[in-house]
Amino acid sequence: MLVAAAVCPCPPLLVPEVAAGAAPELDVARAACTDALGVLAAARPDRLVVVGPADGTGPEVYPQGTRGSFRGFGVDLDVRLGPDRGTEPERTGRELPYGFAVGAWLLERTGWADAPVEGIGVGEAVPADRCAALGRDVAARAGRIALLVLGDASACRTLKAPGYLDERAAPFDAEVGRALGAADVTALAALDVALARELKVSGRAPWQVLAGAAEDTALAGTLLYEDAPYGVGYAVATWS
């Protein structure tokens, strides 16, 4: 059953080596992510499932130990998903997408060693009902399950944002922040798939997996951080 969840953004700029001189601008977001992972550890899960955006449709599975890097950003920094148990991961032929690499970096940064880890990637084309069904399947696994849910809100909050300014972005992000802070599974499940795609939201599908996983729980939500640096909406929340 699902016992806790943490929601974090996953821009590569969250990694100080990637952000370089701009790193201090996301110090508050990094601190909030650290606090969120602390909530997961305190729940003492038997397994941590990292859910994040995938390049394809998915679901794409990333076993513990799957490697990723930030070399595409000119940074000589490698990561691996979950604690190093001294064994080689299953050969999938894939590296972690950048969003999952950020999640792996967060876990390494906080010294995660509390439970085995696996990743599940879901693409932006996956419909809401399939996301919910995937979440229910994850929550139905034996033992105590925790989720680390990765994804960003809209990328259209300012003129200089990656998706330029869209007046629909701020209201969309505000509703996402409210729903995450209230652990409102109904509101997350109802997010508009087409609008989320137009606003370049990477977190829609992962959040709807969370909504499915939490359907039959009584988890309470707390919004730890919400802002839009660089014109992209970032939110950090915990459900426990």
Automatic annotation (TrEMBL):
CDD domains, sorted: ED_3B_N_AMMECR1 (cd07951)
SUPFAM superfamilies (alphabetical): LigB-like
The protein's name in its UniProt record: Class III extradiol dioxygenase subunit B-like domain-containing protein
Natural source organism: Streptomyces thinghirensis
